[in-house]
Amino acid sequence: MATMSRAFNTVDLQDPVKAAEYVKRKALEFGADAVGIGNIERWADAPIQMDPKQIMPECKSIVGMVFRVERGSLRGIEEGTYFSNYSAMGYGGLTYLYIPMTVINLTKAIEDEGYEAIPMGHQSDWRAIDNEGFARPNYSRPVRPGQAMPDIMIHLRIAAYLCGLGEIGFSKMFLSPQFGPRNRIGIIMTDLELAPDPIYNGPQLCNRCMACVKACPGQCLPTDKTIKTNLAGHEVEWSDIDTKRCGIIFRGGVPTDTVQEDPYMTDVPTSVPGDYSPFRHKPRTVYNTGQAVCGARGCTRACMISLESRGVLQNSFKQKFRRRPTWSVDWSKEAEYAPGTVFRKPPKVEID
């Protein structure tokens, strides 16, 4: 019996409109929840360390894909009883498993027809810039004059915006008309010319209600300090996030002015557990970076609740998300455990 292989060069993709429809249908078939396309000209003003053409000089199109964070993956944190699920399924599972598989399969479908494509997801651990866009000193260097340093980081939320998939909210979270802030992004760069989609101009998503600001447990989203930028001729503005503080709050800790004898996080000696964490110490990391103990309380949950209450999201639900009062943990008091909680008893020590 002969071996079998995928078929190559069987689809004519020379017409950009038909090619775009083909790629979009494939993206949904492989697992994306929404897909849009931006032509490379929309990245003309990108900083050199975020410029797609530094990776693929012949790039003509970028395909952006939205992947939903299941509302149910936030249920355990909302109830205060099941924290690892959001980090595992709504965060790490998407980032390190589901999105790469979908993006890789779409890349293969494009390359089957003779066009090069680069799969990209959330992974940017080797990037040459920090969380605020500044070059990391003594980290890497350009391999040719005039080139960017390795590794380039394509800004995924901006890419999703430039592919017409939604808005960037005040919290800097990407907001899709399907899911609001409940999404993550994957993209593909390709030398295949695809008809671009218009920049999103649907129902307003972020109305500056500031629910994200009010609910952020670390107050990491200032209202008096913002970032403004021009994206393909559109003025976009978001809060200048305190990323360093968010990095601590995100994991459930609160920085103090005093070094703690038994800190919440070993890498932050001044940290104590916040009232939004039920853990005495930060739980171990899930999927490399999945450690979202705060459960995106402001930037995702509060935003989502606001958007759902306005009825602007396409993915609507029969029940509202918040059904009980918001909980908090009082670390100044002794813990109270529910009836039926069983702890292992210490062994008896017999003295002769």
Tell me what the structure shows.
It contains eight helices and ten strands. It is α+β, with helices and mostly antiparallel strands and 352 residues long. It has one domain. A four-stranded antiparallel beta sheet has the order 1-2-6-3, sandwiched between helices. A two-stranded antiparallel ribbon has the order 4-5. Strands 7-8 form a two-stranded antiparallel sheet.
Order of helices and strands: HEHEHHEHEEEHEEHEEH
Shape label: globular
Q: In this structure, how is the largest beta sheet organized?
A: 4 strands, antiparallel
Helix content: 10-25%
Per DSSP, what share of the residues sits in E-state strands of 2 or more residues?
5-15%
The helix-and-strand class reads: alpha+beta
Strand order within the widest sheet?
Answer: 1-2-6-3
The end-to-end span amounts to 79 Å
Instruction: Indicate how many domains the architecture comprises.
Output: 1
Determine the number of helices (DSSP H or I, runs of at least 4 residues).
8
* Poorly predicted residue ranges: none
Whole-number radius of gyration? 23 Å
Number of strands: 10
Mean pLDDT: 96
Keywords:
single chain; 352 residues; alpha+beta; four-stranded antiparallel β-sheet; two-stranded antiparallel sheet; 8 helices; 24% helix; 14% strand; globular
